[in-house]
């Protein structure tokens, strides 16, 4: 008989997990969400096998529970678990972007019946809701697990098996280390991206043309400012100490840069930029962490009808699958750029050759 996986919270992340677990054909998926139209959508599109009328009812029939609601709601769901009578031990995990407050709440659970393994699939998008869910969202991404002390290796391996359909790479971390690292590479950058957008918006009062001039660099660095504000404020407040510490670091760093400018210290400014470039270049395009990264190919195209379709056709004709395609900058009559992303280097290099043969100018940024 198939084991039952309950997913509570069927938005972008819960829905994507449901899709990736369901396609293995190994599990019976029961969904729970406070939003009934989300449940209807999931049933209609066969994302789940059954919709549960209550969280308690769902947990009672579960072998595994995945909590995929916003962080604050996930903490409330963990608190509800102790009041639910289960007749066998179950494994519970979550997907929250912060781990310490989750593990603190899980520490108050009845350890005999509930094996809690914190989880954080480190891939996502600026979109929210079930309509944005994708079966392959977590493919090749890092999936952090933070098991409670009562979880044996066997229990952890068993959960990894449930999550195998995500095709992600598991990493066991201590919750405090996870929160410190994600505050540096994920949470704090979101705050900075939003602050840069605010700065541009405020300067627009002086220069109405600012949005028209906003070029690739500004768009790249502020892309994540378009993410779900409700989710991010929740994350910031659950990682308040980490965020405050990074803000202090940042303010000190900005003051140092200001004084380099004021004193005309060009050598130090050059060194600052050069060291940043070296470190950024060294991150490489290979790993898919919190910032999804693939094997990208930049293709120069003219803004003419059918230009995008032609590139796709040429690659599809050679059985090359494209992971993502994005128009970076394209204005009437001016050469524009497409960023075409592939899953591996082989596809990237083969595409470069095909497009070159067909007269396209391409660039690979190592
Ligand atoms: N969006 C992203 O890129 C990533 C998000 N995460 C984490 O995933 C979690 C969910 O985020 P998303 O899926 O993006 O949000 P979402 O807004 O797309 O989905 C959240 C879902 O939870 C439901 N929900 C709210 N309260 C509930 C409750 N009490 N019980 C059951 N369902 C409830 C909502 O109706 C909605 O369907 C968050 O904790 C976030 O930190 C983790 C990795 C990436
Ligand atoms: O789209 C992006 O660049 C992201 O940063 C996605 C993301 C959002 C939240 C997470 O906890 C992990 C990944």
Tally of contiguous helical segments = 14
What is Rg? 23 Å
Order of neighbouring strands in the sheet with most strands: 3-2-1-4-5-6-7-8
Major β-sheet annotation:
8 strands, mixed
CATH architecture of the largest domain: 3-Layer(aba) Sandwich
Cα separation of the termini: 49 Å
Class by SSE composition: alpha/beta
Helicity, in percent? 40-55%
- Count of discrete domains: 3
SSE succession:
EHEHEHEHEHEEHEHHHHHHEHEEHE
User: What global shape is seen?
Assistant: globular
Please write the CATH class name of the largest domain: Alpha Beta
Unreliable spans are 286-292, 330-335
Bound molecules: 1,4-dihydronicotinamide adenine dinucleotide, 3-(4-hydroxy-phenyl)pyruvic acid
Strand content: 15-25%
Q: What's the CATH topology name of the largest domain?
A: Rossmann fold
What is the assigned CATH homologous superfamily of the largest domain? NAD(P)-binding Rossmann-like Domain
Domain Prephenate/arogenate dehydrogenase: 3-291
Catalytic activity: prephenate + NAD(+) = 3-(4-hydroxyphenyl)pyruvate + CO2 + NADH
Pfam families: PDH_C, PDH_N
EC number: 1.3.1.12
């Amino acid at each position: 008989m198939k084991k039952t996986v309950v997913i509570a919270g069927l938005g972008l992340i819960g829905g994507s997990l449901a899709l990736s677990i369901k396609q293995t054909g190994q599990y019976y998926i029961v969904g729970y969400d406070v939003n009934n139209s989300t449940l209807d959508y999931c049933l209609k599109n066969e994302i789940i096998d059954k919709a549960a009328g209550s969280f308690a009812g769902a947990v009672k029939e579960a072998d595994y529970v995945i909590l995929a609601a916003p962080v604050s709601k996930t903490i409330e769901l963990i608190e509800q678990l102790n009041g639910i009578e289960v007749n066998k031990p179950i494994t519970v995990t979550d997907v929250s972007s912060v781990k310490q407050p989750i593990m603190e709440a899980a520490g108050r659970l009845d350890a005999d019946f509930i094996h809690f393994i914190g989880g954080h699939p480190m891939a996502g998008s600026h979109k929210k809701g079930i309509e944005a869910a994708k079966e392959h969202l977590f493919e090749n991404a890092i999936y952090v697990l933070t098991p409670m002390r009562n979880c044996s290796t066997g229990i952890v391996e068993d959960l990894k098996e449930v999550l195998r359909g995500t095709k992600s790479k598991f990493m066991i971390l201590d919750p405090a280390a996870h929160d410190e690292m994600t505050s540096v590479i994920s949470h704090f950058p979101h705050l900075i991206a939003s602050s840069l957008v605010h700065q541009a918006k405020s300067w627009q009062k002086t220069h109405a043309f600012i949005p028209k001039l906003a070029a690739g660099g500004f768009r790249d660095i502020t892309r994540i400012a378009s993410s779900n504000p409700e989710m991010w404020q929740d994350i910031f407040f659950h990682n308040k100490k980490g965020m405050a510490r990074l803000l202090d670091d940042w303010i000190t760093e900005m003051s140092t840069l200001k004084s380099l400018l004021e004193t005309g210290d060009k050598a130090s400014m050059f060194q600052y930029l050069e060291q940043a470039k070296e470190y950024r270049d060294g991150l490489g395009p290979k790993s898919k962490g919190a910032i999804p990264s693939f094997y990208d190919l930049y293709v120069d195209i003219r803004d003419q009808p059918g230009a995008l379709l032609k590139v796709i056709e040429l690659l599809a004709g050679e059985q090359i699958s494209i992971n993502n395609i994005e128009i970076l900058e394209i204005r009437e009559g001016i050469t524009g750029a497409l960023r075409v992303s592939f899953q591996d280097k082989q596809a990237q290099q083969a595409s470069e050759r095909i497009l070159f043969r067909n007269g396209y100018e391409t660039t690979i940024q190592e």
